[in-house]
# Entry
Amino acid sequence: MLRQLTGAPRSRHQLEQALARRGVDEEISTRVLDRFTEVGLIDDAEYAHLVVRSQRESRGLARRALAVELRRRGVGDPEAQDALATVQPEDEEASARTLLRRKWHAGRDLAPEVRARRAMAMLARKGYPASLAARLVREMMEASGSGVPMDQQDPWEPEAPD
# Structure
């Protein structure tokens, strides 16, 4: 069990499942996990914050997808809500813009409608609200229709004065 904790942080639920798979009696498992929690080896609140931070940075997940990920990992609602509260709407929008910019540039040989559809789907999979995704894709489409090659422009940067 300590090996489980040294490899990567785990939630109490994940450790309970690991002990159950190994056939450890439930009463013994509960006592061990209670002791680990007492001495600070298990901290679901800290684990939730770690998951939110790392998944936002590495995968660009939005709050909705992060909530699903925390639930999947067995983090309780109070801990999950506390960790999700650290995600600010403006940070979420900035992440969506970064993901969209990357996806848009990668599909530069595709028709604009195909690029838009694929970008919307990608943002939906990452958990971004449909209204935010639609607005950002619309902005990107409008900017790409300006005649300036997309690899030479950033639709969210102000244009240089003439």
Q: What stands out?
A: Residues 1-41 form one domain. Confidence is low (pLDDT under 50) at residues 146-153, 158-162. The chain has three domains: 1-41, 43-87, 89-144. Residues 70 and 80 are 6 Å apart (CA to CA).
